[in-house]
Amino acid sequence: MTVVPGLDVHQVGIEARTPHPKASVVDGPGVMGASGQGATDRHAVVLVGEFGVYDALSDVAHSAYQDGDTPGAILMCRALETLAVAVGDAQTLRYALYIRGLAANELGRGDEASDCAEQLLVLARDDLRTYWQAKALALKANAHSGRGDSAGALDLLARASVMLGVLDGRDYNQVSASGAIALALRRVDLFEASDKQLRQMIGLLRPWDAITMVADSLHTVAEWGLALQVIGDTAAAAQQFVVCASRAAWLRRLVTQTGRCAFDTFAVTGEVFAATMLGETQIALDVIPQLLTRDELRTERVERLLAHFALATALVEVGRFDEAQDHLLKLREIAVDERRTTWMTIADAALMRMYVRQFGDHPAVSRSFAMYQRLAVSQWSEREARFDNLQSRVRVHRLIEEGAQITELSRQDALTGASNRRVLADVLDGPLVPVSAVFVDVDNFKWVNDSFSHVVGDQVLVRLVELLRTASRSEDRIVRYGGDEFLVLLDPVTTGSVVAAERVALGLANRILHVVRSHDWAVLCAGLAITVSVGVVSSVDPADLLTSVSAALHEAKESGRDRLVVGDPRL
Q: Residue 394 — pLDDT band, cuts 50, 70, 90?
């Protein structure tokens, strides 16, 4: 895995933005687009804005990908990733990585797609909403399918589905994650589930975005019909080709609404393919040779596979077998290059049927084809077991998530959301590495409770934890030690050397004093003013932590409160 260097996503401030045209889901006021502050507990989460400062550039790359220029989209994304890292635009970096991963999967470059997914998982590890993680897992699932690892793909899809939750269309990235899962479902031949997911999404999108999902649905039902044809279920295949014609007509209507001309070529290809598969073969001979010359029908577009197949079918009907073979072999070559196993099977079956038409029903050919068809039928019947397997894995991962949530709640303070002393005990009983900490105590807290009520006192503690999170780093942990006492445990991995640890701990303590002093506490209750005393220690043995930091805090309170004292690590 290659992680993008030089970018600390937890320290990058992303500007809050109004909903972007990309997030054109129905019921606009429900679109989530505000950014939030980074959380500071290791197990806390971060609410981030959906779109970055340079999001318009990611839209250009995304349009190139959607319009069929997959290699161009990859080049744009690589340049955009460099720019996003340089300027600290973490959200645009995510989109660039995701689009590149989609494009890489289309080209059969699963390793590159997996690398993009791994980087996204690192960037999204603390997100409050897990949609980006779901998108990354769907990318990996698609790559696993290309390698023939269906079991690995199903497990990743199960995890992604749990992270996705119930699709409601109120968040662009939830809809986007749903689309990524739908594409990966198609790659493992779960056509019904894929198309169902796509149709759910289309109803939540405005025409500009829906057009891509309708094109994907066309791809799904076309491939579904061809797979049914391979196993000899011609009646069911014909039903899917009728649906394919309907999707193509829908796509053409959306082209008129949106003006996205590249999709007109895709719509025409879908119409001609569906008509050809339903017996109107002359239209393929008339239209497809010209379609294949268009720039939009690039090699990596599914429409090009449909065009080759439809033209080959029409050529077989008029006895032009050599030309038909050329198109089927070209189709198979693309399928091999892009690791599209279902399309390899479709091409092989079509070649065998053609050879029977061309050379006669030789017993060897007939038996070979019968054996091939039995194998295809066996593989097709495994889809039901595959779907059941997916559903079982979803249930398992949902239980795992619920168990993790219960465990997390057992380690949280119910009032403030900070960690409780179980987390502190884990640190003290853990590896014997030097620990740094900041101990915070509210000055005169009993007076606050007596003068303003215990309700206000509780509000003070909740607000204090919010301020501690603002002042701390995302990897540090906030622990409620006692009633009004809080420990901020610095992450030893990122703190660095002894000298660096002292600097980081002292910097944190000063920030805490500053944010508490500058906060308008009267918002909670008129006349309320709050200060804190702070003790700091760095690089002490875990066994000595509480003794050293407690002594420092005690000295700060005895010295007049509202100050910090650096403790002696030798105590």
A: confident
